[in-house]
Amino acid sequence: MNRRDLQKLAEIRLKEATILFEAKCYAGAYYLAGYVIECALKAWIAKNTKKYDFPDKTIVNQIYTHNVEKLIGVIGARVPKEFEINWTVIRDWSEKDRYEEHTMEEAKDMLKAINDPNEGVLRWIKEHW
């Protein structure tokens, strides 16, 4: 899987999460929305990977995670101030959310935090991926 694959997958997961939300499948919408950010951050990491460089084992081990806070740490980025409020909604997402119920409000907040045209975290990540 390469950077372009991850970018495309982020867009697909956003579309799927939106469809699930519109179908009132809020738990699924919330869960898939988290993968939007995971894939987008991994695309950013892929962009920063230098061709022909042998990757540091510590970094390789760190990127095989679903934890978006750890992925931001690997990138070494700081969430800009204008995205901080939305990042607080996203940062606690976990792949374990597939086992949890999530309300309409939680799913709505997650999708807004990701895709808001002005302060959505995906907009910031796309500037770097």
Salient structural properties:
129 residues; mainly alpha; 7 helices; 0% strand; HEPN_dom; HEPN domain-containing protein
Low-pLDDT windows of residues: none
Number of domains: 1
At the fourth CATH level, what is the homologous superfamily?
A: Nucleotidyltransferases  domain 2
Would you count the extended β strands for me? 0
- Strand composition percent: under 5%
Query: What is Rg?
Result: 14 Å
Output the structural class: mainly alpha
Using the coordinates shown, work out and report the CATH topology: Four Helix Bundle (Hemerythrin (Met), subunit A)
With helices defined by DSSP (H or I, 4 residues minimum), what is the helix count?
7
Largest sheet: none
Q: Average pLDDT value?
A: 95
**CATH class category name:** Mainly Alpha
Helix content: 55-70%
Distance N to C terminus:
15 Å
CATH architecture: Up-down Bundle
Order of helices and strands: HHHHHHH
User: Judging from the principal axes of the Cα atoms, what is the shape?
Assistant: globular
